[in-house]
Amino acid sequence: MTNDGPGAERTGHIPRGADRWPLVAVAGVLAFVAMLDMNIVNVALADIAEGLQVSTATAQWAVLSYQLAVVALLLPVGSWLDGVALRSAVLAATCGFGLCSALAAAAPWMTWLIAARLLQGAFGAALFVLMPVLALRSVRPELRGRAMSVPATLGPLGAVIGPAVGGILLDHLGWRSVFLVKIPFCLLALAVVWRATPRDGLLRAPDRRSVADALLVAAGAAIVLLALTLAPDGPAWLLLALAAVPPLWWWLRGPGGRPVAGALRTPGLFRAHGAVLTLAAGFAAMHYVVALHLQRDNGVSATTAGLTVLAFPLGMAVAGPLGGRLADLPRALGSAQAGGTPIGARPVAVTGAALTAVGLLLLLPLGDGWAPLDVAWRLALAGVGLGLNGGPTQALVMGAAPPDRIATVGATVQLARSLGFTLGPALATAAWGLTGTHEGVRAALALAAIAACLSVPLLAPPRRRPASLPEKTTDAASSAHD
Length: 482
Hints:
- It is a single chain.
- By secondary structure, this protein is mainly alpha-helical.
- The protein has 2 domains: about 1-205, Growth Hormone, Chain: A (Up-down Bundle), CATH 1.20.1250; about 265-330 and about 340-460 and about 470-480, Growth Hormone, Chain: A (Up-down Bundle).
- The protein is built from 21 helices and no strands.
- The longest helix has 30 residues, at about 145-175.
């Protein structure tokens, strides 16, 4: 492994005043664009089917091919990026993502579009891995919470507003514009990274082992995604999901999976990944159920439903920067000049997760008739919680990552988030279908709230065993753990 990979340069080597905040902004922009692409194409599927003269089921592969490539390649790409130059990797991934957007927009037939989206998903997987690494490497450790809050807030915002942006573009410019809209963001990111980062070497091509690992993970991921797609149709999806175990187990026990398993055994990392997954599942399930129930069962117009659901990302956008600042804030007033320790990422992350859980729990007593205003303030509370949680949780995870496995951990945490986004709506739909219309809404929301509640103990500090270490040493370890 080379010494110029993303984990080679430690943030502690950045002198005071030399923090590269434009690169943090780039990480946020790329997070927004990559997550926007996960949802913006959904609203254009009918127009794509008509324009390319295919069935709606076939047009869905414009979305599925991208998601499949992202989920399948996250872990192999993370392992590969631990040994390559960061600047070159960001430039290549951003350039490839933008180029594939242009190819998708120019697609003359469906096969072309699917191929372009598969390739774009591969570059998207690299972007998902590189975004937290770029933010981590651009600032000093004492500013890590603020830096991590930028991509952690802008990414989910891109996922939430994707359908709204796609609808506007579709009405005025046609379906090809939903692919072209991402290109200006990519060009801006390329310009900033080119000017703001020093040259650090060329990319190293993946070896055969990396390609074999990618194929094994891709097979398991494809089976899992297919199983989740079939979840609303009945329990048979569980049997299909079991078929994903052999290829994933084979990979995990091989040379490609062992470093990932080793990184996750770092104290606190596995629990934090579980919190990321459960919060993402709760958020995605809630967003799906609330929007559908407002329009289908309460007779609310699409515009009113959209404005109601918008309360969640607004709360998140307001609280996101605050969460990072609170995590970096010195414990005692005036201790910044004295070198006081910060509050730490963990308390802020736990508080945010608890607020999200409370907001979702408050949806349960609403009954059948929902007033948009009653729903909106509850969603805003949940959004504030997720905004407070995002940056500190990302800082907690990346700060605990082994120095030579930062890109790998960036991949695993993004995989946990992606699986949560996929698992939440699938389980909510299954719960809704099994219990009927009115009770189903409450069951689906209860599932979302339970998922959010699970994240709180996962993020809370584990009970410490009585230690024989001196008190000073124990306090130092506690500060580092936060």
